[in-house]
Each structure stands twice: as C-alpha cells, then as structure tokens.
Description:
The chain is mainly beta. Helix content is 6%, strand content 48%. The longest helix has 7 residues, at 24-30.
Amino acid sequence: DDSGPFLRIQSGASGSAIAFDVGQGVLEKLAGKHAVFDIIARAEDGKDTQISVDCNFGELGDCGRKRYAVGQQKNEYLFDVKFPDKHPGAAGTIAVNSDFDKQGKAVNVYEIRVSIEP
C-alpha cells in the first residue's frame, strides 16, 4: 500500500543531501549494540532513481555510504551499524541524496526506523 503520509525529498541539481535528525537519546540506546536501520521509501511517479545514504553519529561513528536503486513500489532499504559502547555526546544525522545522478528526481520517504539486533 503506497498510501499514508510521506515526506517528498529532492536533492536538486546540486546533489545536496537532505538530513534527518537522530536524537541523542536514540543514540544513547544504540551505544554498544548492533542496530538495523530501515528507510521505507519509493520513487516519485514514473521516475526510478538511485539514492545514496550517509550517516554521522558523532562519537559513535558513521554507516559508510550506501546506494540503493529505488523504484515505483514502496520498499525497505536496510543497513546495519555496530555501534561502539561509548557515550554519543550529541545527536546525529542520516543524510539521503534523492538522486545520485543529479537529475533532480524526488523520493517519497514514509518512515525511517531502527531496531536492535539480538
């Protein structure tokens, strides 16, 4: 089902990423754990795209750059991070570039969630 609220993001010709905040409290719960992030998204109608994802979790590191092909159907784009057992010190960000090819394509982001792996 592609209905429901979403945020349409568009990086534009500059290729600037759109940053989503990850609160310090969330990072404190993830410290020392193995977490899986799940971005639920789909491409704008008729315009498949490739997104790139970068993370900055401050003292807890990053997620490396990820690339995904995003099509017309709402789908899950997963990546995992093993966090060091440290105090994060600040909030972090997940930055999404909606069009790796810099053609101004948009992506509808329905949800970004995280779960802790056992």
